[in-house]
Amino acid sequence: MRILVCITFILLGSFLTLHAQEGAGISGKVSDSKGQPVSYANITLQRIDSTFVTGCTSDEKGKFSIGKLAADNYLLQISFVGYITQVIRLDNVNRPLDIGTISLDDEAIMLQGVTVKASNVMKRVDRQIILPTDKQVKSSTSGYELLSHMQLAGLKVNSLERKITTVSGGNVQMRINDIIASTAQVQALRPDEVLRVEYIDNPGVRYADTDVEAVINYIVRRANSGVSGGASLTNAVTTGFGDDNVYIRATHKLSQFGLNYYLSYRDYDDRKVDEEQTFSFPEAEPRRRELAGISTPFSYQDHSIEASYNLTKPEQYIFNAVFTENIYNSPHQDYGQLIKEAERKDLYNYTRAEYNYHSPSLDLYYKKMLPRDQFLALNVVGTYIGSDYEREYSEAYSEAGEPISSYDYGTDGSRYSLIGEGIYQKAFRNVTLTAGIKYMQAYTHNRYVGDVNESTEMHNSSLYGYVQAQGKWAKLNYSLGIGASRQDFDESAEGFTFYMFRPMLSLSYPVFKGASLRYNFSCSPSIPSLSALSDIRQQTTDLEVNRGNRNLDPYRTYINRLQMSWGNKRVNFQLSGGHLYSKNPIMEQIECVSQPDGSYMIEYGTDNQKSFTQWNGRLYANISVIPDVLSISLYGGVNSFESKGNSYLHHYTAWYVGGDASLSYKNFSLYGSIGNRYNSLYGESVNYGEKSSMIQCSYKWKNLSAGVGVMYPFTPAGWSAGWKLMNERVQKKSWTYIKDNANMVVLTLSWNFNYGSKHKTEEKLMNNVDRETGIAM
Question: Predicted confidence band at 740 (pLDDT cuts at 50, 70, 90)?
């Protein structure tokens, strides 16, 4: 491993040295009238006769550099949407020339921050950089609403539920100025402060130890000096549904103080679970049962309190501290059913489940800017998670009768973790080198009571290091990353140590005007969850039991993606396809186990199986029907899955379609989306995702916005999702319904205030968090 790392650095060093050679060229920096950098400004170089020579864009600090020029006289043009274009004549350029800082003046139509007149998309090897249009900004009151009106390919945005996922249901990490952002922070984001949105749909080696499929990074002209704040309320008219937050920020000189409170709650009375079950025991006829759901309550309250402090000295250092307390209380995750089985008396079952936790954390961050386009960033996060889980299952001959059997257990859990990370970055003329290291150490203690009376103590740690080079060679944009990780787990002197080499490659090439081709390859590990590794046996019904597996091993997943995109001012298309392969994945292992009395039980667990494969394809189209007024997006795709277990083989193919529309006229805005279920196979289970649909209309007047929306319109049966189990010994089909969500009318109200002059808070480049409890449920 050491030899490999040394060779890697030697090769990268030689490569960077070649790129760093100097010749005749022009460099400088672009800023606005207040001295703030203008990132991604367009730089065009022409000869005096207006013949085009070359071009580039300024980087995140407003800096740019053009090299390898012949001695000549030139015209340098600097432009950015929303600013007055500057043209500078440069005579007799025959050596490296630093022209200093060029200031761009705002156009007369400018509002606070940067407001642009038309959408502008800049493609990079790992991301898209999108400038929101003036209409999109005016139609939005939060980061979620802004993203919904921007209609980014591959994302599903539900601004009423504050939820963003990929089309496949994957996790999307939200960041503001590269600081990982909570739901409350994204909701409190002012769209008129957003300079651009970076959509990282190909997370690189830096994100290799996370489970995110995409990253959204809002680049924001930060809060004002003085005081700013606001409130955002979203509540249903007749249903227990709400997402509300209030925030306030105060800035004095180089310091900024912030306080944010967010509350999300659900309280449903009409939730039910219908099931069909078939159990095949040895030397017996199959037992087929129908379980008709009975309406039971479902509720939770999720509180988040954040206090932050930021101290920034521009171009020198940044210190950021955030204390967060999350409090989650779910008193009802209940469901009941009427069990009908041939030649047996009807039974009623009832499951009562309660889950609570609180999780304080302290996040400390420091970034030091170094000479010659370098920086060093350090991050330390300490977290405690205290959790309680209770489950009671009973069966009786009447709905409120005396139980004839019952199974109860509870868990009292504690987890302590410490995460540390460091990042170093050096920018050369045509390539940027980034290196990082991340370490996590955690201790988990869970006490199981009730029918299970055991304790588990688990220690786990991870070490991850990486180096990445991003640059351009001729027309080819590239990103090459190499990472290595070590994972350790120990429970009662049993565990594993796992090493993983993580290469990553991205290539992007402009095929012709408006079109580009991109290829991505990545290799990443998947680590068993702490709950799966807990060797705890929990009986759930008279016929079924759950059990962990201490012998699980981490496994590797290889992903290849190819994407072709084309667009102009009115139409954008994206065609993509991919292949995913997991070797020895952790998937279901279901067995029929003989009991001492001669009966049999179905034991549900997991084990390392042979392989899992997925092929996928997707077509996306966005059409600007009426520029700056009406735009429509449509998407469709197909997935083909294969789960190859030690004793089973399953195939499944599923299609999906969807779309959304955004309409803005004067102070009114209308947004709607619809999509069918995204179905998938993993192991022996097919998951049927939810159908998505919503309509939202709002009116904005100055800093006040009011609106009305409908969740899941035209669905009389309500929200639903389900799954199917295809095991040889047990087959199940289960559907969960929440009728309260059907045609749910939601009112929205937001207001913000802002006093004082602008103050820019520098960007934090990383954030770490621990949310795993290790509890087996």
Answer: confident
Tokens of 659: 């779309």
3-class secondary-structure state, position 755 = strand
Q: Which pLDDT score, from 0 to 100, does residue 21 have?
A: 40
- Residue 92: the pLDDT is 67
Q: Rounded to two decimals, what is the model's pTM?
A: 0.77
Q: Which residues contact 169 (CB under 8 A, 6 or more apart)?
A: 678, 680, 689
Whole-number Å distance between alpha carbons of 91 and 95 = 11
* Residue 136 Cα distances to 123, 148, 445, 631, angstroms: 20, 9, 49, 11
State the distance between the two ends of the chain, measured CA to CA, in whole angstroms.
39
| CA nearest to 661, candidates 697, 636, 637 | 697
Q: The tokens of 221 are what?
A: 């002209």
pLDDT band for position 209 (cuts 50, 70, 90): low
Task: Provide the Cα torsion 510, 511, 516, 517; round to 10°.
Answer: -110
Rounded to whole angstroms, the Cα distance separating 337 from 732 reads 15
Q: How confident is the model at residue 423 (pLDDT cuts 50, 70, 90)?
A: very high
Alpha carbon distance 58, 421 (integer Å): 28
Q: Which residues, in sequence order, are CB contacts of 452 under 8 Å at separation 6+?
A: 409, 536, 537, 538
Cα distance between residue 652 and residue 654, in whole Å: 7
User: Which residue type sits at 647?
Assistant: S
Structure-token match 């407003």, residue found:
62
Rounded to 10 degrees, the C-alpha dihedral 393/398/404/410 comes to 20
**3-state DSSP helix/strand/coil % of the chain, to nearest 5:** 5, 65, 30
What pLDDT does 452 receive?
Answer: 74
Distance CA 604, CA 592 (A): 9
> What residues are paired with 94 via a beta bridge?
none
Q: What are phi and psi of 568, to 5 degrees?
A: -140, -160
Average confidence (pLDDT) over 591-602: 87
For the segment 309-337, the average pLDDT, to the nearest whole number, is 89
Q: What are the φ/ψ torsions at residue 185 (nearest 5 degrees)? A: -70, -40
Residues 6+ away with beta carbon under 8 Å from 598: none
Tell me: pLDDT of 590 over 80.
yes
The residues near 492 (Cβ < 8 Å, ≥ 6 apart) are 456, 457
- Using a pLDDT cut of 70, give the percent of the chain over it: 89
Beta bridge partners of 735: 274, 722
Q: Are 498 and 554 in contact (CB under 8 A)?
A: yes
For 87, counting Cβ atoms within 10 Å of its Cβ (0-12 exposed, 13-18 middle, 19+ buried), the class is: exposed
CA nearest to 332, candidates 296, 289, 280, 294: 296
Q: What is the mean pLDDT of the chain?
A: 84
Question: Which residues pair with residue 192 across a beta bridge?
Answer: none
User: What is the distance between the alpha carbons of residues 176 and 199, in angstroms, rounded to a whole number?
Assistant: 12
- Alpha-carbon Rg for the chain, nearest whole angstrom, is 28
> Any idea which of 312-321, 356-365, 746-755 has the lowest mean pLDDT?
312-321
273 contacts 734 by C-beta, under 8 angstroms: yes
Residues 6+ apart with CB under 8 A from 144: 157, 158, 159, 162, 164, 186, 187
Q: How many angstroms separate the CA atoms of 301 and 333, rounded? A: 12
Q: How far is 157 from 164, CA to CA, in rounded Å?
A: 5
* Whole-number Å distance between alpha carbons of 119 and 309: 34
**Cβ atoms within 10 Å of 623's Cβ, excluding its own:** 14
Q: What distance lies between CA 663 and its chain's CA centroid?
A: 26
User: Are the beta carbons of 149 and 139 closer than 8 angstroms?
Assistant: yes
Sheet containing 42-47, strands listed edge to edge, beginning at the edge strand earlier in sequence:
52-57, 42-47, 72-79, 86-93
Rounded CA separation 293/199 (Å):
42
Residue 562: predicted pLDDT: 95
At which residue do the structure tokens 């299609």 appear? 655
**Smallest Cα–Cα separation from 442: which of 777, 182, 771?**
771
